[in-house]
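STRUCTURE REQUEST FORM
Protein name: G protein-coupled receptor
Source organism: Pristionchus fissidentatus
Requested output: structure tokens
Priority: standard
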Amino acid sequence: IINIFGVTGSTIGKLFIVVHRFVVIRRTTLIEDVWSNRINCILTFILLVLSCARCVSIFFCGYAIIVRDGVRLVTFIDNECNVADKTQSSVINLIYIIYSVVLTVLTSRQLINIRRNAEVRAQTQKFIMTQQRNMFIIVSACTVSHLIKAMHQFCWIFAAYFRLPSLNAILINTYAYPHYLATYSASLTLVIFSPRVRRLLMTFRNV
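Status: completed
Returned output:
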């Protein structure tokens, strides 16, 4: 349940980031504070509600049980619930990918237009473009990592629906790679491409 809540929340949060980048890049001032505190609170509330709603179905699931040395062990949720859970995850990832790809392409085009038409000093323009380029890379990394995870989830649905234990075993063994890639891609790229984030991690001073 904790895993489902966290993954759903992080995906929705990354979708908000993509939308925010598009809104910022559409404004000629490129000011980051484009959303009021009220909008931020509403979006946070929506994120929490949807993440909680995503967990409800788990309470109605059966469990796959094996007997080992006379002891009954719960290994996972039952096959039907597994298919339903992975289907929901795939739908969420698909929605994220569609919106992310469309808005990332539009953001990229707007970024090119700004570079061509910006009527500011060269140094200021360089700073602005570097900042926006880095954020574009971060958003793109999130999109690619979620695409990889969505493909893994689809394979899991296929294996569970057609009852392919060998493929299911492979997917279980490789689950951590796409899962953690999608979960931590935003954090890693932020540390790599954002000097401000690196300074915040390395000092207690206000920056």
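Reviewer notes: The CA atoms of residues 11 and 161 lie 25 Å apart. Residues 122-161 form the longest helix (40 residues).
Form closed.
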